[in-house]
Every structure is written in structure tokens, then in C-alpha cells.
Design brief:
With 246 residues, this protein is mainly alpha-helical. The protein folds into two domains: 1-38, no CATH class; 53-245, no CATH class. It has 13 helices and no strands. The longest helix has 21 residues, at 2-22. The protein is globular and about 60 Å long. The termini are far apart. The mean pLDDT is 85.
């Protein structure tokens, strides 16, 4: 019976992965699989999260944003502050701040809360970690999350990222591996970023904050090229190499 149940879960998970490959921006197909939510991997992630006293406090109080981040207001803060850097990040990539209304009750389970909190702080994490919101940046930040909390969905996203690259963009594989290694190493070294109440630190100097969190960033995201800028050239070079030898 257990074997049949595992096969059933494996099939449902495979279907979820296929849907994720078709739309990498939507992880809900996997998250909605109840059996997967009850899996040991999720329980381990929650246990890792609650082992951090500061993050456990967020779990206990169900700490969430009171209001959406006002990008225009943040962009007027002192240069070098968390809020200023985040606003520059959002404007540079032409993204809008997304606000998720507060959960009405505290009956939501820990998995739901962790995912909810991660979603509303995800863009902040990108800016703080200096990781672009593109394929490479998402793989890098997924590796970071995996290193810090052993989050199963992060592992699934890394797998999908590799598969997608093999099928659609094989010329990106070396950079993809480098991005994942970078994210993993940063995650192992840094303090837990999920435990930070970012909304209360908009005025704080970003360098000071990163130093406290043991995060080293070479350049801000708004100073970096988006993946699409150099991806076409890599694809062109790959095609030339294939034509030369085939």
C-alpha cells in the first residue's frame, strides 16, 4: 500500500513539475499537492526555520506587511539605504510592488505562512542579495533559500531550471551552475534572511545591514545587465560552434 501511495504521489508531483516547466513563474501546481505539503521535506524546512529564535517569533505572531511598499517614497530616502536600493531595483527592472492582504486568522498552517512571507519579501531579497530577477538570478536565490532552510520548493525549482536550460538554453548551463554555486555559498555563510523584518529597516544603511547579515555583494542589481542582454550573444556563439563542427 505504501509503495502504491509513493507511486501516486510521484505521478502527481511529475504532473506538477511539467506544469511548472510550462510556466516557471507559477509554483502553485506543486504547492497545492496536499500529500507533498505533508511530506517530510516540508516538515524539515519548517523545523529548520523554527530553530532560529527570530524567525520562530515571526511564525508565532504571523508577522506580515501592514501595507504595500511605496516605491516612490522609498526612492526619496537617503542614497545607500535599504529602501533606496530596493526602490532602484524595482524601477530598474520595471516591477511593481505586490501586496498580499493580511491573513485574517492565525489558523493558517506554518507552511502557508512561510510561503506567504517569502512571497512578499522575495523582491527585497533579490535587491539585498544583488541577484537579478532573471533565470540566473532566480536559480541563485533558490540555491540560497535551499542552503538556509532546506526548502523543498527551492530544490524543485532548481531541478526545473536545469531541465529548462538543457531543453531550451543549453548554452546557459555553465553560467547557471555558477549562479547556483554562488547562491548556495552565500546562503551557507549568511544569517537567516527570512527572519528579518525588512519593513522596519527601510532607513538603514544597506552596507551596514549586509555586514550584519554576513552578505557580500559585488554590485547592486540596478548596476548589472539583465540576462537577456548577453543571452542572445551566447546563443549566437553556440550556433556558430555547432555549425563549425556539424
Amino acid at each position: 500500500m505504501k509503495k502504491i501511495k509513493k507511486i501516486y504521489l510521484g505521478i502527481k508531483f511529475l504532473i506538477g513539475v511539467i506544469k511548472l516547466i510550462r510556466n516557471p513563474n507559477d509554483i502553485s501546481p506543486i504547492f497545492k499537492i496536499k500529500e507533498f505539503r505533508d511530506h517530510q521535506s516540508f516538515k524539515l524546512a519548517i523545523a529548520n526555520a523554527k530553530s532560529d529564535p527570530d524567525l520562530k517569533e515571526l511564525f508565532d505572531t504571523r508577522y506580515l506587511m501592514d501595507a504595500p511598499a511605496d516605491i516612490e517614497v522609498l526612492s526619496n530616502l537617503s542614497e545607500g539605504s535599504l529602501g533606496y536600493v530596493f526602490a532602484r531595483h524595482m524601477k530598474h527592472f520595471k516591477m511593481k510592488a505586490v501586496f498580499y492582504p493580511k491573513m485574517e486568522e492565525k489558523t493558517y498552517d506554518d507552511i502557508t505562512y512561510l510561503r506567504y512571507r517569502a512571497r512578499e519579501t522575495h523582491d527585497i531579497h533579490h535587491a539585498v542579495l544583488g541577484m537579478n530577477p532573471d533565470h540566473l538570478g532566480e536559480m541563485s536565490i533558490s540555491a540560497f533559500y535551499l542552503a538556509q532552510l532546506n526548502i523543498p520548493l527551492s530544490a524543485a525549482l532548481l531541478g526545473v531550471g536545469f531541465f529548462t536550460a538543457v531543453i531550451k538554453k543549453p548554452y546557459m548551463l555553465p553560467m547557471l551552475v555558477e549562479a547556483i554555486i554562488k547562491g548556495w555559498n552565500m546562503g551557507k555563510k549568511a544569517k537567516n534572511i527570512h527572519a528579518v523584518k525588512w519593513e522596519e529597516l527601510w532607513d538603514k544603511d544597506i552596507d551596514e545591514l549586509r555586514n550584519e547579515l554576513r552578505i557580500n555583494v559585488e554590485s547592486e542589481t540596478y548596476e548589472q545587465e539583465h540576462q537577456r542582454v548577453f543571452e542572445k550573444e551566447l546563443k549566437h556563439l553556440a550556433v556558430e560552434k555547432i555549425e563549425k563542427y556539424y
